[in-house]
């Protein structure tokens, strides 16, 4: 079996590099990074030496490694698959500032711990980020939420989040903006800035106000507007799909049928 590895940058999250590899013979000798590393093994077992201790990383485990920490990594089974998130210090600093009142990077120590639920979320997020099959809004939201789960699990930063909901003015401003720009790409940054909040604080307050994620709420808004346009009967399905922000008609058809039980042509 040949070893293989692939790295991918994300234009909508500068400072993040995704890695995906399968290794049987390749040995990561003693090394360190200038960025933060979050790693999960999805198949097989990786063994690493860190601060004189042997740590084993298999499915359901998460490896956190901050900049400058010396460690290694080698196969401890027939082969193993590894997914990594390489997070620049600047990006991690920005995230930790949004997730807490701190304006310094998280006190993240090298750590391997078992958390199958969060590991599964990281795996799904990695796949989605690689394929870009979901909107930027959903990706940004889940990225911050997963980081929050990791920081909470490790006690890396202290939470300073405001538990209050969005004000009526913020909620109305955001609704009006989304309706006026439904045919355009709407990002988490757009909505948070509109409400005068950091992205994670916006996420928390939005969920408290609405009971849905911003992505799920916006998707429903697009579909509801599509229903209104379909009722008028003057536009083609393809035109309506673009009008409400779907640039892939097959994606529009699937989302519509999942929401209403019929294809747009049958509404």
Quickly give the CATH architecture of the largest domain.
Sandwich
| CATH topology type of the largest domain | Jelly Rolls
- The low-confidence parts are none
Helical content stands at 40-55%
Number of helices: 9
Classify the secondary structure makeup into a structural class. alpha+beta
CATH homologous superfamily identity of the largest domain: Regulatory protein AraC
What's the order of the H and E elements?
EEEEEEEEEHEHHHHHHHH
What integer value in Å does the Rg equal? 21 Å
What integer is the average pLDDT? 87
- What is the overall shape? globular
Domains, number: 3
Q: In percent terms, what proportion of residues is strand?
A: 15-25%
Distance between the termini: 52 Å
How would a crystallographer describe the biggest sheet?
A: 6 strands, antiparallel
If strands are numbered along the chain, what order do they take across the biggest sheet? 1-2-9-4-7-10
Protein name: AraC-type DNA-binding domain-containing protein
Organism: Hahella chejuensis (strain KCTC 2396)
Domain HTH araC/xylS-type: 172-267
Keywords: Activator, DNA-binding, Transcription, Transcription regulation
Describe this structure in words.
The protein is α+β, with helices and mostly antiparallel strands. It has 3 domains: 4-154, Regulatory protein AraC (Jelly Rolls); 168-211; 220-266, Orthogonal Bundle (Arc Repressor Mutant, subunit A). The chain is built from 9 helices and 10 strands. Keywords: Activator, DNA-binding, Transcription, Transcription regulation. Residues 172-267 form the HTH araC/xylS-type domain.
